[in-house]
Amino acid sequence: MCQAPENENKVESKSSSHTSRGKKVYTDYSITGIPGDGRCLFRSLAHGACIRSGKKPLNENLQRELADELRAQVADELVKRREETEWFIEGDFDNYVSCI
Q: How many domains does the chain have?
């Protein structure tokens, strides 16, 4: 998803963490604001993917482009798996997918 060149936009991360019940628990984190523009879920996923891969946060325009691309991929996947996914969509499935 985050498509910056391999060595560009790398961020050195010195996260503090420990293990609890077999899971890694991060204790060094920050809160990042995401514009509430109707694509905030997809923006936050794009942002998190870049941070997790060690890259710098995306600028707002690239974040929007990646969010829209991810949204389209999710809509396509819902249509492909309609029999599996239709039951949990509230309201009309086709309308939901066209609005997503």
A: 1
Q: How many Å is the Cα radius of gyration of the chain?
A: 17
Does any domain span residue 91? yes
User: Virtual CA dihedral for 79, 81, 86, 90, nearest 10 degrees?
Assistant: -60
Give pLDDT tens digits for 32-64: 888 888 899 999 999 989 888 988 888 889 999
**Which residues does residue 25 pair with via DSSP β-bridges, in sequence order?**
18
DSSP summary character for residue 53 = T
Sign of CA dihedral 83, 44, 7, 13: negative
Exposed / middle / buried, residue 50 (Cβ in 10 Å: 0-12, 13-18, 19+): buried
Strand partners, 18: 25
- Whether 54 contacts 10, CB under 8 Å: yes
